[in-house]
Fold this sequence. Notes:
The complex is a heterodimer.
Chain A: H1 3-28, H2 32-53, H3 56-80, H4 93-116, H5 131-139, H6 148-169, H7 172-179, H8 181-184, H9 187-194
Helix pairs in contact in A: 1-2, 2-3
Chain B: H1 3-18, H2 21-58, H3 74-83, H4 95-113, H5 130-151, H6 155-186, H7 191-196, H8 203-206, H9 208-225, H10 237-240, H11 250-275, H12 288-296, H13 299-318, H14 326-354
Helix pairs in contact in B: 1-2, 2-3, 2-11, 3-11, 4-5, 4-11, 5-6, 6-9, 6-14, 9-11, 9-14, 11-13
Amino acid sequence: xxxxxxxxxxxxxxxxxxxxxxxxxxxxxxxxxxxxxxxxxxxxxxxxxxxxxxxxxxxxxxxxxxxxxxxxxxxxxxxxxxxxxxxxxxxxxxxxxxxxxxxxxxxxxxxxxxxxxxxxxxxxxxxxxxxxxxxxxxxxxxxxxxxxxxxxxxxxxxxxxxxxxxxxxxxxxxxxxxxxxxxxxxxxxxxxxxx
Amino acid sequence: xxxxxxxxxxxxxxxxxxxxxxxxxxxxxxxxxxxxxxxxxxxxxxxxxxxxxxxxxxxxxxxxxxxxxxxxxxxxxxxxxxxxxxxxxxxxxxxxxxxxxxxxxxxxxxxxxxxxxxxxxxxxxxxxxxxxxxxxxxxxxxxxxxxxxxxxxxxxxxxxxxxxxxxxxxxxxxxxxxxxxxxxxxxxxxxxxxxxxxxxxxxxxxxxxxxxxxxxxxxxxxxxxxxxxxxxxxxxxxxxxxxxxxxxxxxxxxxxxxxxxxxxxxxxxxxxxxxxxxxxxxxxxxxxxxxxxxxxxxxxxxxxxxxxxxxxxxxxxxxxxxxxxxxxxxxxxxxxxxxxxxxxxxxxxxxxxxxxxxxxxxx
Lengths: 195, 363
């Protein structure tokens, strides 16, 4: 192997090791904020793998969306909620056993699936230098091969979940006041409505 | 981590150009890292000194004068003091996160610094996604601030971190919209190509009012993201005794401080690169003699001059305006900057599609 290959292999195993440790921290840490940091590191390592594959743009977007967006929001949400629940309580033994069994089955199935299927390299293409432009053209392609409609559907889904979050977060008192406006509304507003 | 992106690029370049074996690559990497950290510390110390001198000017006093001529070595002395100070960790602090938080801030800053194009040769890593990379790594910085505020186990720190988070999430939108305008005009995410696209004229002249608006909004939003006054609510001394870095001392505090000042440099450098032509000289179409005289001045000096002007404006703002309230901060972003930014992107798209540049390309 050449030096470049060696370096890439070294960095791959380095990234893999960090990702493995960080993902264990993410699921096993009792402190919820440490778990969030583990998640951030895992996602950043995934971005590193994209770089190894030559897809810089995807790596940038991975960092931008997941580390800069999602994890920051998660940390922010943890800080906004009650800081008294600093430690997560130990889950019941029964649930832990079931979890372990499910995880073991999942591992076996995944490994079996990977071993059974043969990954053939269809083309050793060098990624184009203008990935961003390519992604943009593919996304907005109007000849039927584009991804504009799925993109819009996903935004609709996000909008729905935002609305759902607002509804859940609303205090019951405000919801009740909304549902029956004529009982709680001040007299002034009623006069305005009738006139 | 994502430092690997930069490490990989450096390593690849070293391996490709030198072919000196794995130890040669490692040595090259070590030199690059030491050089980056050294230049970062020097830059940070210089910026702190300049800030104090400019502040003194604005307040009609002299500023640091005792250490060296005109206080030139004041920040060197301050840095040594910071390095040998006792490292205090609060008893109830989350030790791992307390250690990680300043490191996150500094790593984010270092990653952003390496993509800054100073000149065609003095450009450490020329990523083809330069602009996206800048937006991506800035998320690490705010993660460091949030974790620092949380792990200190101090209510002032937590409040400061919350404010920093809210501020970052809000102003990130305006900042990204300005980046999009610049990318639309330049037609590339790669910073070297962004600079090359401004050979005939900087975008701030050629993009009608759109790029001027984008430039101004970029400066405001980046000032807010850097937590610099008048947007320094996360560390408001009079309310929060220092905010998210209240509990940090010695080297860890120095990390936060250094990250903040270098981030100011990176944001100014990016503004200069995207809107003021980076290391491109000032050129006017048709004035051949003037253009050739301007082209004599080397690129790095043009770049440094532009960055210095933007940094000076940033300091001018800092020592002129009072701190905003939280509600004013949010109103400024969501009711003014964001609508302006969205309209700006739409107008920029119309201008580019119809080719209505000033000083058209290739004349």
